[in-house]
Structure formats: C-alpha cells, structure tokens
Amino acid sequence: MNTKFNKLKDKQFLRLSKIGYDITELNKEFDRLNLNGNIDGLKNYIWRKLNSLVNKHQGNNQKLTEIYFEMLMFSDPMEKSRDKYIKTLYYDSLIRSTYESTDMIDFEIVILSKKNDKICKRCREDNYKKYNFDYALKNHLLPHESCTCEYGCTCTLGFIPKRDKNGRLIFND
Asked: Is pLDDT of 9 > 60?
C-alpha cells in the first residue's frame, strides 16, 4: 500500500488517540471505508473525526483547546481562511480555559511574535502587548485581523502572573 498514505494515517491516528479516540476502533471503522490509499479520503475522515470531537466537547474549553490545536497541526496552512478560523477558535478556547483554571492568581495575557524581518508591522507592533482577561474574553486577540504575514499570523499568547511592586504574586479575592 501507499507509504505516504500509511505514514499520514499512522501519525494522525496516534494524534487522534491522544485526544480521545481508541486506535483499534479507528482502524476498524476506517477499514470498513475501503479507501485503498486515497489520501483525500483519509484527510476527510480525519477532519470529520476532529469535528466530531469539537461537537462532543462543547463547553469544555480545556478539551477544545487540545482539539483545535490538533486541527491546526493537521490543517493546511495554505488554506488561509480555514487556518485563520481555527486559530481564532484555538486562541479563544485557550484564553477561556486558562481563565477557568486560574481562579487564585491574577494573570495578564501577552502577545508574542516572532522576531524576524518576515513579520508584518501589525504583529511587530503588538509584540509584548499585555491584556487582562476581561478584555481578552470580549475581544479576539489573535490571529490579527490586519496581519499581512506570508503564512498568516504566527503570533502566540503567553500568560504571566501579575505581581505587586515587591514582586509577590497578586491573588484574586
């Protein structure tokens, strides 16, 4: 059988198993489809499985963050509109899951961009820009709407615990 097909199938089935699927069940179901080395069919199958997990875990932002990350890893970056949409979902769920899990310590959200000459002006301007959760939960921080980077916005988010003037962590009330 096609080596490229098998490598893609094995790699993606392993990734799917890490976010909730049983590899044995995936293989059984997949074998019944009888795709015979059809890579597009395999990609569609994997994409359907990822979307199925999104539907199953609505409301669980931590799990959705994992799933959207896997979708980004699987997605073709040349499909810029789909890639941008998935990045938006990923960052929104990341912010929400971090907010839900950091109820004791106050955090700031910081945008981090790559440092090279291929990064657009918008991404460079926002590098190290900080936001609070209230703002971030109501506004889409990433990907930048006006980004003109060749492969889309490559910025990421960091979460920094807030500290007082003496360097001690600031706890929520």
From this structure: yes
